[in-house]
Amino acid sequence: MRFASLGSGSKGNATLISQGETTLLIDCGFSARETEKRLQRIEFDASKLTAILVTHEHGDHINGVRVLARKYQIPVYATAGTASYLAADVASLVTEISSHDVFTINDIEVHPFPVPHDAREPSQFVFHDGKHKVGLLTDVGISTPIIEQALSACDALLLEANHDMEMLDNSDYHDHLKYRVSSRLGHLNNVQSAKILEKIDTSKLQHIIAMHLSEKNNSPNIVSPLFAQALNCDQSWIGIAEQETGFSWRETI
Ligand SMILES: [Zn+2]
Ligand SMILES: [Zn+2]
Question: Measured between alpha carbons, how far is 31 from 237 in angstroms, rounded to an integer?
Answer without folding.
Answer: 31
